[in-house]
Automatic annotation (TrEMBL):
Source organism per UniProt: Sediminicola luteus
Superkingdom of source: Bacteria
Keyword Cell cycle appears in the UniProt entry: no
Annotated GO MF terms: CoA-transferase activity
Organismal lineage: Bacteria, Pseudomonadati, Bacteroidota, Flavobacteriia, Flavobacteriales
Name under which the protein is recorded: Succinyl-CoA--3-ketoacid-CoA transferase
InterPro entries given in the database record: 3-oxoacid_CoA-transf_B (IPR012791), CoA_trans_fam_I (IPR004165), CoA_transf_AS (IPR004164), NagB/RpiA_transferase-like (IPR037171)
Family: Belongs to the 3-oxoacid CoA-transferase subunit B family.
The entry's keywords: Transferase
Coiled coil stretches, renumbered: none
Length: 219
């Protein structure tokens, strides 16, 4: 059974380690904060100038003045701080963020990512994604494996305008956990509960290495 968005976020939360500074992109990545273990200390950073974000608020807790970069209302943890965008991007460009989690429309087998523009549709711009993909050492992508028409989004080459080149390290989709190999191509690490290797292979356009027995994700 393929994962839903919360399932993808829950699996990615296992990649978040004690003491990490983490930037969460728009979409599925914002859900990751809801699933981080309670016994570790993590600082979530948002490029609009917040450090110390907590889980999403319940409706009666929401404060319209406290938002993330996607304009969603958020909570803050004790000790959280607010600052201007120049300071925020100084953190990002100075490589003070340990893990960046982004959504994507497409990822290529060489680690390219396209996540900001579909030709013909108006968007305001790339936003902070350009700085994040250029500066981050560890980028994990949260995305659906295929589009609504069933076509693969895990590709040999991206067809959409690129956000970054050769930067993605790992991908968690509704079907699988994939590693981008240093020389190019994807390696299948885990499969979603009830999803077969054959289903993942059929949904993946890029070169996919399958070695040995592939375990199910531990959620």
């Amino acid at each position: 059974m393929a994962l839903d968005k919360n399932g993808i976020a829950k699996r990615i939360a296992k990649e978040v380690m004690d003491g990490y500074y983490v930037n969460l992109g728009i979409g599925i990545p914002t859900l990751v904060a809801n699933f981080v273990r309670n016994d570790i200390s993590v600082e979530f950073q948002s490029e609009n100038g917040v450090l110390g974000m907590g889980p999403f608020p319940f409706e009666d807790e929401a404060d319209a003045d406290i938002i993330n970069a996607g304009k969603q209302t958020i909570t803050t943890l004790p000790g959280a701080s607010f600052f201007d965008s120049a300071t925020s991007f100084g953190m990002i460009r100075g490589q003070h963020v340990d893990l960046t989690i982004l959504g994507a429309m497409e990822v290529a087998e060489n680690g390219d990512i396209a996540n900001w523009k579909i030709p013909g549709k108006m968007v305001k711009g790339m936003g902070g994604a350009m700085d994040l993909v250029a500066s981050a050492e560890n980028i994990i992508v949260a995305m659906m494996h295929t589009n609504k028409a069933g076509k693969s989004k895990i590709l040999k080459r991206c067809s959409l305008p690129l956000t970054g080149v050769g930067c993605v390290k790992k991908i968690v989709t509704n079907l699988a956990v994939l590693e981008v190999k240093p020389g190019g191509g994807f390696k299948l690490l885990e499969r979603a509960p009830g999803v077969s290797v054959a289903e993942i292979q059929a949904a993946t356009e890029g070169d996919l290495e399958v070695s040995g027995t592939i375990p199910e994700m531990a959620l």
